[in-house]
Amino acid sequence: MDPMDRKTVKRRFEREAIRESNKRVRTAEILLEWNRRSRNQAQEDGCDRVDSDEESDRGLGEAEDVGNGNNSNAEEQENEGEGIDVQAMEGERCREAESNSSRSSESDGSDDNFNDLPESDNEPEPVQHPNNYVREQLSEWALCGGVSMSKVDDLLKRLQPIHQNLPLSYKTLLKTPRNVHVVDCGNGSLWYYGIAPQLHRHLTQEYLLRHDVIAIDINIDSVPLFNKSSTNFVPILGKLVDSSEPFIIGIFCGTGSDPADLDTFLHNYVQEVNNLKSNGFQYEEKTWKFRTRHYILDQKARASIKCVKGVRGYFCCEKCTVKGTDYMNRMCLLNHDCQLRTDENFIDMASLQMMPRSEHFEDTEIDRHVIGISPLLSCESKMVSKFRLDSMHMVYKGVFLRWFEFLWSGHGSYSLGRRQKQDISLKLGSFRPFCPSDFNRKPFAIKSEKLKATELRRILLYDGLVVFRKLDKNIFLNFMLLHTAIYILCSPKYHKTLNHEADRFIRAFVNHAENLFGKQFIVYNVHSMIHLPSECFDHGPLDTFGAFPYENLLGKIKSQVTSRYKPLQQIAKREMEKVNKSENTVKPEKPLLQMPSVNDPHEQLVGQQYKKIRFRKTVLSVKKADSCCALQDGTIICITNIVSSENGPIIVGKRFAEMSDYYQYPICSSLLNVYKVKQLEERSFYLTLEDISHKCYLMPLDTQEFYAVVVFTDQSCQAIPTSWLDEEDGQLIAFYPKTFWKDHKVRKAIENCANRNPDTFDKHWNVRVLHYYNSLIVARNNLKKAEDTSSLDSENDVMPPRRKRKRESFDSTDNSDDSDDDEKKTRSKHPAPPQFQKALQQKIKNNHITQQTSKSRESPSRSPSTVGIFPHDMVECDLFEDDDSWSAVTPLRGSGSNVASTSSASDTDIVKKFGRTSVLVKSTLSQAEHMTMLSIQMEMRTKLERMERMLSTVMRSVKPSQKLVLPKDIPNLPLQTQEEFDGNENFLADSANRSDTSEYLATFINMNMKLKDQTYTILRKCLADNLASQYNWKGRDKKAFCSTNLCSALFGAILDCNKNSQVNMAEVEGAIKEWLKYAPKRASAYKKPGQDLSNSSSML
Questions:
Q1: CA 1000 – CA 1061 distance, rounded (Å)
Q2: Chain segment 322-349, per-residue pLDDT in tens
Q3: Number of Cβ within a 10 Å radius of residue 789
Q4: CA-CA distance, 267 to 297, in Å (whole number)?
Q5: What is the DSSP secondary-structure string of 440-464?
Q6: How confident is the model over 59-85, as pLDDT tens digits?
């Protein structure tokens, strides 16, 4: 083994040992605390315990010995702490029940006196023996994964003196089988567990009530076990239809990606499937029919299992008989209208493989697709129609990733420049605060095209609508064809009604992509998309046969391997141990209110206010990421408050006044429930969970500025991301890295729009924003002007005009808020996509598909966008309306469910009690008057707040120098050169001039500012950084500032400003020293190559 590998393995074992040691410590503490409480309770009831003080001291000593390890990370400690509370509560309930029953019985002075507890018919639940409880909890903890069995043995040995019913080995605790039946399978070994044991474990009464036939989906994929090793797992996974939890049927472990002996690998599976199909499945004295629905595999696994050509074969397409063309070292499939394959044709081709090659060989498409006889033919006759085209591998990690790679790292005219890549990355990073919590991976600033499948899916279906809008017009329209087609096929509502349109869009995308990127783009995955519409029409939405759930299970399987010794046996034993411990029961979910707070002190509803509510595996919150949702009538609202009442939770929200189409090509976005929305109304609406149809993804348009030039209280300027700005108590605050950050790390954090961490960021109050920018480069270019003038009103005067280079292509759209019909006519050097808008709209009208037109409502008042809150324009991408429960694996996949349809019976009763008349405005007169008064109050409060913000903004923008008369003959400030400084010293030598200058400088500061900020402000008004670099306080190696007349004028200004309070002159002196110390650094930071700061213009 390589020395570096040994070190890595050693460090990993050390980390695991530390984690296990801490877990044992916490478990020992729980048990000791439980014994102490039990002993105290027994003493109060007059019962004697066997546990003596010596045993208690001994137990504490053992716990201290266990705790000699290092601490694990904070996250593990937090998770463990949550489990401790639950266990302590369970133990307390057990002890209370035991103490109540022990009062009527005699204590025998032993630990087992709980066995003599009398039975009571009044108790709803039987009392659990405490030792059994400890044993159950230990077994569940050991089966959670991430803990080695040797550590479990060590913990059992330490606890056994206290709880003698605990075994000394994990094998007895978990009922680990002694032997695991493993068979040789060519280049590895195979362990087959079976389908029937897993069905007994996962079937529930709720599932059987909804299904007449037990149907499962099958997945086969490979996963590498270790780094720099050829050992792989190839598990056979299954999943009940309409269930989200897959299970293990069998696992192959060997070298190479595929089993060499396919017959042995599938032999047991084929036999069991044939048996279940012919005899049925016995469950609870009833025979259930069994069938396999889908085989969900990636292309490599399908080719291996079906024994057909791979992606490099001329006849590799599994759905049609197209013949490929070898072009630029790629197999390109350019014909998209060939004859489709059928199950009968596949069987005929497979039967020909049994004949000698010379008898059946012909240069035809049929003969050259199947290259062998698959073992699945013994149990499956539908070798074409049952094998699905996996969306995860084919669409997201296949087609869309290839499209993105061509733009990001391609070498054609379509490739993106450095500036375009930076803009796309920054836009994605800016969406992070707006991304709903249902997504597993939030947007971030990307640096390469290496993205996960869930990230690619989110970009394709949601973020790409805004992120790619500034690309070349025809490239963006090509993306819109792909986006619209996949969006339709993922939708449970539209995958059939708009299936024909999706087929047209996919074909147009493939043909247009060939014209854009060349023939080398049309490989197997791109061609196979032609067959996706028919797959979805026959078998359901695209995400119902995706591989995302199975990929999650593969990660869990890999994490359970703790060593390289017999990894297959490790997984087999862990899986067999779960059989006796797992109980798959479905508990009805009720709305869970979280984070109590006072969101609106003027709320008229009586009840506790909350910030968050959990319901049906999703979250609704007052935060902008989870606040947007759609009502049953199509209205889009943002949640502002959640109030608890006797009849259930009440949602308080405001609706958008304007809704319009976001795009027109290839169809109107409103047909897919995608809108551009504006302006929240002032009036609030009161809703129940039944009134909410589905959750929405609210994202800012590309008119949002990502950077701002900010002036801090010390009059320093900096360009920072807008995500570092916030508003508290009506004041604008900015977050900025603390002083211990290095300069290059600060610049990198600004460029990447890093998240503001309260531990490493300082909070600066009363900051002022001069201007917003889309680009960091433009913001930094204007930073120097902000430093000199504290104003950026005329942005065009910052830099001298440059002659712009003419380019052949332009942006696709402008940033105006008008409709798409008013966009500028742009030219593009790339071929245009096909136009079929009119025919398509007529087709939709003939099919009686309701089109939601743009809505416009008058708003009582219009408020501009607020920094750090919601931007003025938003794009709302809703989830699809679905009758199924919300999925936790791919949360925003188009399976965003209808909340009303999935509500429980109790929720329906709550809605009935609350009344349907309470949805928007209640019907009675008193209630109407109440709502009217409430709206008026909210409107008045909002207007007053807006007026206060405007007034404060106006007052900050007024320059004191424009309202005061300057002292006569005062030099221009700030001083830039030594000659100006000397002239100013001569001017201040006169006591009258020095007094007038002190009064003048005092007007730039106020008593509310700290002494340090007052000193910084005056120094910045008087001295330029390049001149201040020549001075320090006492004049060591530089010129002395303490003996100058300007220093005396500065002290006089601070004393004049703080006449009614005592001034700490030592603090002022320290501030002067610090400001002069960092003057050279500030001067070098703002100085451009070849620029002489001494020649820059001065300001009064």
A1: 20
A2: 999 999 889 999 999 899 999 888 888 8
A3: 16
A4: 19
A5: SS-----SSS---HHHHHHIIIIIH
A6: 333 333 433 444 334 343 333 333 334
Closest CA to 1045 of 980, 984, 977, 1094: 984
Q: Which residue has the tokens 């791979």?
A: 310
Classify 642 as helix, strand or coil. Answer: strand
Q: What is the pLDDT of residues 114-125, one digit of tens each?
A: 333 333 333 344
* pLDDT average, residue stretch 647-673: 89
Sort residue 78 into left (φ over 0), alpha (ψ -120 to 50) or beta.
alpha
Q: Look-up: residue for tokens 């007026």?
A: 947
Residue 901, CB-side half-sphere exposure with 13 Å CA sphere: 14
Which residue type occupies 495?
H
Amino acid at 856: S
| Average pLDDT rounded to a whole number, residues 196-208 | 87
- β-partners of residue 680 are 656
Contact call for residues 873 and 703 (beta carbons, < 8 A) = yes
Q: Read off the amino acid at residue 706.
A: F
- List, in sequence order, the alpha helices (H) in 280-356: 299-306, 343-352
Judge contact between 993 and 987, C-beta under 8 A.
yes
| 376 contacts 383 by C-beta, under 8 angstroms | yes
Question: How far is Cα 676 from Cα 670, in angstroms, rounded to an integer?
Answer: 9
List all residues 6 or more positions away from 1042 whose beta carbon is below 8 Å from its beta carbon.
1033, 1034, 1035, 1069
Of residues 182, 384, 346, 370, the one with CA closest to residue 268: 182
Residue 1094 amino acid letter = S
What's the CA gap between 255 and 186, in Å, rounded?
10
Q: Is 357 exposed, middle or buried (0-12, 13-18, 19+ CB in 10 A)?
A: exposed
Tokens of 757: 């961490």
Quote the tokens at residue 140.
Answer: 């569940």
* pLDDT number for residue 600: 65
Residue 403: pLDDT band (50, 70, 90) is: very high
Length of the chain: 1100
Answer with the residue of higher pLDDT: 111 or 549.
Answer: 549
With contact defined as beta carbons under 8 Å apart, do 141 and 27 qualify?
yes
Query: What SS3 class is residue 22?
Result: helix
Which of helix, strand or coil describes residue 768?
Answer: strand
End-to-end CA distance of the chain, in Å?
A: 73
Q: How many helices (H) and strands (E) does the chain have?
A: 36, 30
Give me the sign of the Cα torsion angle 165, 170, 174, 176: negative
393-413: b (≥16 Cβ within 10 Å) or e: bbbbbbbbbbbbebbbeeeee
Distances (CA, A) of 368 to 59, 301, 617: 73, 19, 48
Least reliable range by pLDDT among 355-364, 371-380, 639-648, 881-890: 881-890
Whether the CB-CB separation of 709 and 719 falls below 8 Å is answered with yes
* Residue closest to 266 by CA, chosen among 377, 170, 159, 166: 377
In the block, tokens 């008008």 appear at: 818
Tell me the CA distances in angstroms from 272 to 198, 281, 376, one per residue in order: 13, 11, 12
As a 3-state breakdown, the chain gives helix, strand, coil percent values, each rounded to 5, of 45, 15, 40
For 274-291, give one letter per residue: b (16+ CB within 10 A) or e.
eebeeeebeeeeeebebe
CA dist list (Å): 491 to 296, 384, 453, 877, 888:
19, 24, 18, 13, 17
Query: What does the alpha-carbon distance between residue 361 and residue 352 come to, in Å, rounded to a whole number?
Result: 9
Q: Which of 180-194, 356-370, 928-942 is modeled with the greatest confidence?
A: 180-194
Q: Are 439 and 892 in contact (CB under 8 A)?
A: yes
DSSP-derived letter for residue 362 is -
Per-residue confidence band for 35, with pLDDT thresholds at 50, 70 and 90: confident
H/E stretch holding 279:
helix 262-279
DSSP string, 786-854: HHHHS--S-GGGSS---PPPP-S--BS--S-SS-GGGS-----SSPPPP--HHHHHHHHHHTTPPP---
